[in-house]
Amino acid sequence: MATIYDFNETRINGQTEQLDKYKGKTLLIVNTASKCGFTPQFEGLEKLYQTYKDQDFEILGFPSNQFLHQDPGSNDEILEFCQMNYGVSFPMFEKSNVRGKDKNPLYDYLVENSNGKAIKWNFTKFLVNADGEIVARFEPKDKPEAMVQDIERLLQH
């Protein structure tokens, strides 16, 4: 059976990365968009990242343009927007589909190993423990600060 660590993903700068480099870390994987009502969540995500990154916590951002074309820019434009407007410093990956027949295989895995429901919108978040198990799924309306207790509990183990 596949694990989260079996996937290769392409960073927004074009470099391929094996997710096994994150073994032993708590991960928050989120599909993002630059022109969405939930886009201000980048601020909260960056705050979480700055608070916990030295405790083996990583956020992995995956831009998607599938929901009302709310991330139409190139990978370079997306990265520039995220850095200039929200100071995003956590790893961002290339724009990809998170639902449908052409969805990123990682997102197929995340959906199938959480509640099985298709991703409905931008900023769906998956919390993964240090063993690579998906332990929680948060919907777009769930703000990053609402995940603090769950993240802290995982970091204590």
UniProtKB/TrEMBL annotation:
<dbReference type="GO" id="GO:0004601">
    <property type="term" value="F:peroxidase activity"/>
</dbReference>
<dbReference type="InterPro" id="IPR029760">
    <property type="entry name" value="GPX_CS"/>
</dbReference>
<comment type="similarity">
    <text>Belongs to the glutathione peroxidase family.</text>
</comment>
<keyword id="KW-0575">Peroxidase</keyword>
<protein>
    <recommendedName>
        <fullName>Glutathione peroxidase</fullName>
    </recommendedName>
</protein>
<dbReference type="InterPro" id="IPR029759">
    <property type="entry name" value="GPX_AS"/>
</dbReference>
<dbReference type="Pfam" id="PF00255">
    <property type="entry name" value="GSHPx"/>
</dbReference>
<dbReference type="InterPro" id="IPR000889">
    <property type="entry name" value="Glutathione_peroxidase"/>
</dbReference>
<keyword id="KW-0560">Oxidoreductase</keyword>
<dbReference type="InterPro" id="IPR036249">
    <property type="entry name" value="Thioredoxin-like_sf"/>
</dbReference>
